[in-house]
Amino acid sequence: MKLFLAILSSLYSILAAAQQHTLRGYIESAKENSPLLKEYSNAKLLNALDSLRIRAALLPQVTGVSSNNYAPVIAGWGYDYAITNGVNFSQLITVSKEIVPKTLLANQFELLRLLNDSLALAGKVTELDLTKSITAQYINAYGSQQQVNFNQELLTLLRNEEVVLKQLTEKAVYRQTDYLSFLVTLQQQEIQHTQAKLQYQADLLTLNYLSGIEDTSVYALEPPPVQLSVLPEAENTVFYEKFRVDSMILRNTDALIDFTYKPKIKAFADGGYLTTFSEQYYKNFGTSVGLNVTIPIYDGKQRKLQHDKIKIQERTRLGYRDFFRKQYNQQVAQLSLQLKSTQDLIAQMSSQMRYVETLIDANHKLLQTGEVKMTDYILAISNYLNAKNSIRINNINRLQLINQINYWNAK
Asked: Is residue 174 part of a domain?
C-alpha cells in the first residue's frame, strides 16, 4: 500500500510539473502568486466589512457614561455654587439610535457594490496584463528553445560533414586550408550553440521569475497555443466597462454629498443615577428620553464646491474614455496590419527556404565526391543559417503580435 501511494505521489508530481511547464501553467502560477490580485481580493473583504459596519450602525448604540465632579467652596472661595452644585455624581447608561433614510442606506450599499465591481474589473485587467506579459516571455523562451534545437541539428550535420571532409582531405581531394576553413565554421557554430543555450536558460529563468516560480532547472517548453481571437467593439471590452462603473461611482458620490446636508435626527434614552447629594440623594435614580435634530444652514458654499469637483472628475473620465476608444481602434488596426505583413513575409521566406535547402542537399552530395568549392559550401551553410533564423524570428514576431491583439479581446 505504501509503495502504491509513493508511486501515485510521484506520478502526481510529474503531472504537476508538466502542467506547470505549459503556457497555461505559467499563467495560472502568475495569477496565484500575484500580490496585486491578492490585494484586490482583500479590498473586497474590506468592503464587505464596511457593509456590515453600516448595518451595525443602524442598531441602537449603548454606552455607559460616568461623570463625577466635586467643586468645593472654602472660606467663601470657589466656583459659583449655583453653577456647580458643589458635587455632581452621574452614572448613566445611554441608548441612542440615528434615524437614517432608506434612500441614504441604499446609496451607501450601492456605492460598496460599485466599488466591488470596480475592483473586479481592475482584477480582470491585471489578469490580462499578467497573461500578456507571461505569454510574451513564454514566446521569447520558446523561440530561444527553437534556436537551440536548430543549432543542435546544424551542429550535428556539420560534425558529420567534418568526418567526411577529413577523410577527403587525407586523400588530397580537398586542400588542408579547405579543411581548416570548415573547422572554423564548425567552431563558430559550436559557440553559437553554446550562446543559444545560455540565452534559453536566461529566458526560462526570467519566465519563472515573472510567474513567481522558484526553479532554476532547464527543461523543454510546449509550443505556445496562441490563436488569434475575434475582437469585439471597443464598447464591449472590459477596459471600456471600467469607464461605465467609474461614471456610476461619480454619480453615487455626487448624491451622497446632498445626503450630508439633509437634517439628521438621533433619538436617545438614558437611565441611571444622577445627583448633587444636596438632599434625598437616594431618590435620584431616574430616566430621560430626547431627540436631537441637526439642520445644516450655511457652510460657506462647500456643498457647491464638492459638486464642482465631481463635475471636473467626470470631464476627466470622459477624456480618458474617448482617448481609449481612439487608442483601441488605432492599436488594433496597426497590429492587424503588422500581423498580415509578417505572415506574408513568412510565406515568402518559406518559399525561398525550399531553394536554400535544395542547395544544401546538392552541396552535401557534391562534398562527398569533392566537386564543390569549400567557400561555396560554407556560403551555402551561412545562407541556410540566416534563412532559418529569419523564419524563426518572424514566426516569434507573429506570435507576439497575436498576443498583443488578443490582449484587447477581454469582455
From this structure: yes
Q: Dump the DSSP string for 204-270.
A: HHHHHHHHT-------PPPPP---PPPP--GGGSHHHHHHHHHHHHHHHHHHHHHHTTS-EEEEEEE
In 242-366, which ranges are E strands?
264-275, 285-294
What is residue 76's DSSP assignment? T
Rounded to whole angstroms, the Cα distance separating 187 from 158 reads 10
Q: In a 3-state reduction of DSSP, which class is residue 293?
A: strand
Between CA 271 and CA 289 the distance in angstroms is: 9
- The tally of domains found in the chain comes to 2
Does any domain span residue 9? no
**400 in Cβ contact with 345 (< 8 Å):** no
DSSP state of 172: T
Print the domain residue range for 70: 64-99+266-295
The predicted model gives 270-296 an average pLDDT of 86
Determine what percent of the chain falls in helix, strand and coil, rounding each to the nearest 5: 70, 10, 15
pLDDT of residue 411: 67
- DSSP 3-state of 13: helix
Are 236 and 411 contacting, i.e. CB atoms less than 8 angstroms apart?
yes
How far apart are alpha carbons 24 and 52 in whole angstroms? 38
Rounded distance between C-alpha atoms, residue 365 and residue 362, angstroms: 5
**Residue 278 in domain:** yes
How many residues comprise the chain? 411
Q: 83 and 105 share a domain?
A: no
Is residue 350 domain-shared with residue 365, that is, in the same domain? yes
Q: Whole-angstrom Cα distance, residue 36 to residue 119?
A: 11
Identify whether residues 88 and 180 lie together within a single domain.
no
- pLDDT at position 4 is 40
Gyration radius of the chain's alpha carbons: 39
Between CA 121 and CA 51 the distance in angstroms is 20
The answer to whether residues 183 and 128 belong to one domain is yes
Question: What amino acid occupies position 88?
Answer: N
How do residues 17-36 score in pLDDT, each as one tens digit? 444 579 999 999 999 999 99
> pTM for this one?
0.83
| Residues 208 and 214: beta-carbon distance below 8 Å | yes
Closest CA to 65 of 263, 335, 203, 272: 272
